[in-house]
Specification:
140 residues; mainly alpha; 6 helices; elongated
C-alpha cells in the first residue's frame, strides 16, 4: 500500500489552493477589468459604484496578475518564489477589501474575503516557508 508523505500531501493541498484561488481571482479580476461598473454593481459588487472607476480597474488588474502569479512561476519552475509573493499580494487585497466592507457597513460580506485571504495566506506560507518549489535547474 502506497502512502503519501506529509510533504506530498502539503504540496497537493497547496496546488489545490493555488488553482482554486487562481480561478476565483482570475474570473473576478477579468470581470472588474472588462464589465461596465453598473453591471458589476448589479451582480452584488457594491464597491463598483462607491470606488472611482480607475481604482476598480486597478483592483481587477491586481487580482488578474495575482491569479497568474499563483500558478505560472510554480508550474514553470522559473522564479517559483514569486508564487508566494503573489499570494501575499492577494492577502493584502483581501485585508483592504475587509476594511472596505466594514467601513461601508457591509461586515457580513467580508466573510468571503476572510476565507480567500486565509487560503492565500496558506499558499504564501507554504510556498515561501514550508514547501517551496525549487527553481528550474536548481539541485534538489
Amino acid at each position: 500500500m502506497a502512502t503519501t508523505t506529509p510533504s506530498g500531501k502539503l504540496h497537493i493541498g497547496l496546488w489545490v489552493a493555488q488553482i482554486l484561488l487562481a480561478l476565483l481571482f482570475g474570473m473576478a479580476g477579468a470581470a472588474k477589468l472588462m464589465m461596465p461598473l453598473a453591471d458589476l454593481a448589479a451582480q452584488g459588487m457594491s464597491h463598483a459604484v462607491n470606488l472611482p472607476w480607475p481604482t476598480e480597474r486597478l483592483i481587477g488588474l491586481a487580482e488578474l496578475l495575482g491569479a497568474i502569479g499563483l500558478v505560472a512561476p510554480a508550474a514553470t519552475g522559473i522564479q517559483p518564489k514569486l508564487t508566494g509573493y503573489a499570494a501575499l499580494g492577494l492577502v493584502a487585497i483581501m485585508v483592504l477589501a475587509i476594511a472596505y466592507h466594514v467601513a461601508y457597513g457591509e461586515a457580513p460580506a467580508s466573510v468571503v474575503n476572510v476565507v480567500l485571504g486565509g487560503m492565500a495566506a496558506f499558499v504564501a506560507w507554504g510556498r515561501l516557508v514550508k514547501a517551496p518549489i525549487p527553481a528550474k535547474g536548481a539541485s534538489a
